[in-house]
């Protein structure tokens, strides 16, 4: 099924995230996330305190949601096997279905996990700016060679790919290709660079809205599976 460039009427509105000084999430978003363990999956070099992943982690924890982060031993010289082992180890600790919140190389790691484990604790995945090491020619491309080639099969869980129109690691055309291959919903993130440590996305309402929509899809799928 081809991905949808979504402007879906069912997609939660920006008001689902209330950007108040106390950083409040809407009750609807909290209800959608409560059935899941949320797992942050950072990419190359990890996610610093200004990264949307770190901000979300703190906000989710403050709202009583279950959230953890995959901790890799080597963030600057990653190997696929070592990173897979850490992800698998962390997933074994899950008590509920897991939503993976992945960025860059973490998104690539998540796709590899789906290819290796057609049945796992993963209920769904938010794949933000997957790092296209096959076409990227920057100085850090060599660091992620072991993660290439990217899997091309449909993922065994619902997923959403968010891409940026000026991401040096992923062109919109390649995002479209990956979305089609993986069976993902495709979300246009505008002009936000690589959506990482230096992007200044802060609490990133667009990403939270996409996560809300994904959580509702995953919940509906679980209800149908157990009906």
Automatic annotation (TrEMBL):
Domain of life where this protein originates: Bacteria
Molecular functions (GO terms): hydrolase activity
Entry protein name: Alpha/beta hydrolase
InterPro entries: AB_hydrolase_fold (IPR029058), RBBP9/YdeN (IPR010662)
């Amino acid at each position: 099924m081809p991905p949808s460039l979504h402007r879906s009427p069912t997609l939660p509105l920006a008001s689902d995230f209330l950007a108040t000084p106390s950083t409040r999430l809407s009750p609807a978003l909290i209800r959608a996330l409560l059935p899941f363990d949320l797992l942050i999956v950072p990419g190359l070099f990890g996610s610093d305190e200004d990264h949307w992943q770190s901000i979300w982690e703190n906000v989710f924890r403050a709202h009583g949601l279950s959230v953890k982060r995959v901790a890799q031993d080597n963030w600057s010289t990653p190997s696929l096997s070592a990173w897979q082992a850490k992800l698998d180890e962390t997933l074994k600790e899950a008590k509920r279905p897991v939503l993976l919140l992945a960025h860059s190389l973490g998104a690539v790691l998540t796709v590899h996990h789906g290819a290796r484990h057609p049945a796992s604790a993963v209920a769904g995945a938010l794949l933000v700016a997957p790092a296209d090491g096959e076409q990227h020619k920057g100085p850090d491309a060599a660091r992620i060679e072991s993660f290439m080639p990217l899997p091309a099969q449909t993922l065994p869980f619902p997923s959403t790919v968010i891409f940026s129109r000026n991401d040096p690691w992923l062109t919109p055309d390649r995002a479209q290709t990956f979305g089609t291959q993986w069976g993902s919903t495709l979300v246009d993130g505008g002009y936000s660079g690589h959506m990482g440590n230096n992007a200044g996305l802060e609490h990133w309402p667009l990403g939270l809205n996409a996560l809300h929509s994904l959580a509702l899809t995953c919940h509906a799928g679980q209800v149908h599976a157990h009906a």
